[in-house]
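ARCHIVE CARD
CATEGORY: sequence design from structure
SOURCE FIELD: tokenized fold
FIELD CONTENT:
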């Protein structure tokens, strides 16, 4: 999910990757959101590739690959675990209750199967979970609650398109399905996280349709912010940490007592990971048409550990792997705090909601010129976590929604139409408009008004004469040419052609 500025949610973004040797499935990353297109069977390999023996210890007795959630704007229901075979059918777009396709499902290589985001946090959370079983259980419960919140938010804001091509309109979805996959580690490195996969087939207007994936992508700030704040402000998680003498830095959400050891610990884990990656690459070079199984990955894991730490005992199961992590952590100098600490927290009633709304708008305006409601919600959630807020989910959600609404009221719409889709970044602030006006005035004073040229549209995707006008303006002899337009209007495309 990327690493945002100052205290936002931490995440992994591994870039585009092939999940099997035949490129049957490819995951493309767009701003922290992954779009999976390809074979359902390859999707199963994709969700299992990060699993290690540690997951056998943490997962619910290995009973399933994923948990299935069904969400409507009114709530979220858990439908239990899916086995690998059932998960493949789910990815393929089958209704698991009737085992019939969800409407007209595409089978080509470009068919979108699901949209994925990752819920996680600073690595110090995972280290604390490895050290203390109580922290592990509390973190798992907090992550599960965060997943439900995110899926519920997406169900309330996602859309699909209805109507003939060229005359489609966006309508709200009525039901979505999500798969939640829990991973504990990656190549022997403790990293507790959840994969949330939103199925591309959604129910709306009386039929199964395709989710508007761009809308989900443009909502990533809200998704990241909700996921981060839901865990960072969770009362049970924070209380268990305090009981073990562990404190959370509000600015970064790192556990202060563990933060100094992350670098050294990660360096040793990275060595093992590089060894495992090299062993896998060598094997794939000699087996181009095969996919390694669990036993082969277990062999690589053991060899990678033996090569990196030949004087240590190679762990054989999940419990031994956790013991290894703890031993590594203490080897680099970590010692458990001697006493519990009081839980210092901010209560929801202490937050000045108007001041928070003003600050959110100011922070957004300092980074960009336009935003949407999801951007506001995400920034609000991160800000609340940075105040050291600790609150139950209902109280935090009410607070975040209220501050978001107040911030929206402080914004200026860039589009006056009443049917602007929610995901479109069509909001700005008087402060941003003031800066823009000042820049235009300065440019006008510097320019020769008799030679200053203007093109009202630079969209290269519209009619050809418009493109010709823009091209002509940009290749003119005017001493100053200003290219102005919203994101996606075609500025870069036209400039590239020029």
């Amino acid at each position: 999910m990327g690493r945002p500025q100052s205290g936002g949610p931490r995440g992994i973004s591994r870039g585009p990757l092939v999940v099997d040797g035949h490129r049957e499935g490819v995951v493309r990353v767009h701003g922290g959101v992954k779009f999976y297109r390809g074979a359902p069977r390859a999707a199963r390999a994709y969700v299992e590739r990060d699993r290690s023996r540690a997951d056998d210890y943490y997962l619910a007795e290995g009973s399933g690959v994923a948990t299935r959630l069904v969400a409507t704007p009114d709530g979220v229901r858990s439908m239990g675990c899916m086995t690998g075979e059932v998960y493949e059918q789910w990815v393929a777009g089958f209704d698991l209750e009737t085992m019939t396709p969800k409407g007209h499902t595409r089978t080509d290589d470009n068919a979108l199967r699901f949209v994925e985001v990752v819920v996680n946090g600073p690595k110090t959370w995972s280290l604390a979970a490895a050290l203390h079983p109580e922290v592990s259980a509390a973190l798992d419960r907090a992550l599960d609650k965060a997943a439900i919140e995110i899926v519920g938010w997406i169900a309330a804001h996602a859309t699909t398109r209805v109507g003939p091509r060229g005359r489609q309109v966006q309508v709200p979805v009525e039901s979505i399905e999500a798969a939640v996959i829990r991973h504990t580690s990656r190549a022997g490195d403790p990293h507790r996280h959840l994969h949330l996969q939103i199925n591309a087939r959604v129910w709306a207007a009386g039929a199964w349709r395709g989710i508007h994936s761009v809308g989900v992508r443009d909502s990533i700030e809200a998704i990241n912010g909700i996921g981060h704040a839901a865990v960072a402000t969770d009362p049970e998680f924070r209380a268990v940490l305090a009981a073990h003498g562990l404190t959370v830095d509000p600015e970064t959400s790192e556990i202060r007592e563990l933060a100094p050891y992350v670098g050294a610990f990660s360096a040793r884990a990275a060595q093992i990971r590089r060894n495992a990656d090299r062993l896998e690459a060598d094997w794939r070079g000699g087996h181009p048409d095969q996919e390694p199984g669990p036993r082969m990955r277990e062999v690589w894991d053991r060899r990678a550990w033996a090569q990196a730490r030949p004087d240590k005992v190679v762990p054989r199961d999940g419990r031994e792997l956790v013991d290894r992590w703890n031993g590594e952590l203490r080897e680099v100098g970590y010692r458990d705090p001697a006493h519990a600490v009081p839980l210092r927290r901010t209560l929801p009633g202490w937050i000045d909601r108007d001041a928070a709304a003003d600050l959110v708008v100011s922070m957004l305006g300092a980074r960009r010129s336009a935003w949407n409601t999801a951007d506001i919600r995400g920034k609000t959630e991160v800000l609340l976590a940075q105040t050291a807020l600790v609150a139950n989910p209902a109280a935090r959600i009410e607070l975040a929604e209220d501050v978001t609404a107040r911030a929206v009221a402080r914004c200026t719409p860039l589009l006056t139409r009443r049917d602007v889709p929610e995901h479109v970044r069509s909001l700005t602030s008087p402060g941003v408009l003031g800066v823009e006006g000042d820049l235009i005035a300065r440019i006008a004073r510097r320019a020769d008004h008799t030679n200053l040229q203007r093109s009202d549209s630079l969209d290269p995707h519209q009619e050809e004469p418009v493109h010709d006008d823009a091209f002509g303006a940009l290749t003119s002899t005017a001493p100053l040419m200003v290219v102005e337009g919203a994101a996606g209007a075609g500025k870069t495309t036209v400039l590239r052609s020029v």
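CARD ANNOTATION: The longest strand covers residues 176-186. Confidence is low (pLDDT under 50) at residues 1-25, 52-63, 460-466.
SHELF: design records, drawer C
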